[in-house]
Amino acid sequence: MSTVIGNQIFGKPDSVLEESLNQRLKRQDVNVANITNSLTPGYRSLGFDFEKQLQAAIGSDKDLIMKVSNPKHIKAPGMGADGVLKPDLYVKPTESIGNDGNTVDVDQEMTEMAGNQVIYRATIETLNRKLGMLRYAINGGR
């Protein structure tokens, strides 16, 4: 009798999609905070990047998984020893600073939010299609 292990149904690609959704939600929060503070004197616009860290964490199936003996050890590029993705939250470099010292470009923030939303929705659709295929298989093709 064979047993289906959860990792065989939901594997590494699904974990990557899930982490991508989590990080896109955090990016959305950063963009919203920037727009909210667009009239705050001295506010510096923040950026949030996670794609490079996620790509490094994915690696390939041939990559060796490094074992760590201390949580301060680095497990993989872009990740901590606890296996949690470590995205970059930084002050965006800018050439235009308002008279009040604010660096938020609302048009740029809205553009970033729109692009982030498109990719978020596409990722949700990908996961929904996989669940639909599983539902179809469970119901015996009906």
TrEMBL record:
The protein's location, in the record's own words, is: Bacterial flagellum basal body
Q: Does the keyword Transmembrane apply?
A: no
Report the record's Gene Ontology biological process terms: bacterial-type flagellum-dependent cell motility
Say where the protein is mainly found: other
Task: Keywords in alphabetical order, please.
Answer: Bacterial flagellum, Cell projection, Cilium, Flagellum
GO terms for cellular component: bacterial-type flagellum basal body, rod
- Is Ribosomal protein found in the keyword set? no
Question: What does the subunit section of this Swiss-Prot or TrEMBL entry state?
Answer: The basal body constitutes a major portion of the flagellar organelle and consists of a number of rings mounted on a central rod.
Q: Tell me which family the UniProt entry assigns to this protein.
A: Belongs to the flagella basal body rod proteins family.
Q: What does this protein do?
A: Structural component of flagellum, the bacterial motility apparatus. Part of the rod structure of flagellar basal body.
Name of the protein this chain belongs to: Flagellar basal body rod protein FlgB
Q: What's the source species for this entry?
A: Fluviispira sanaruensis
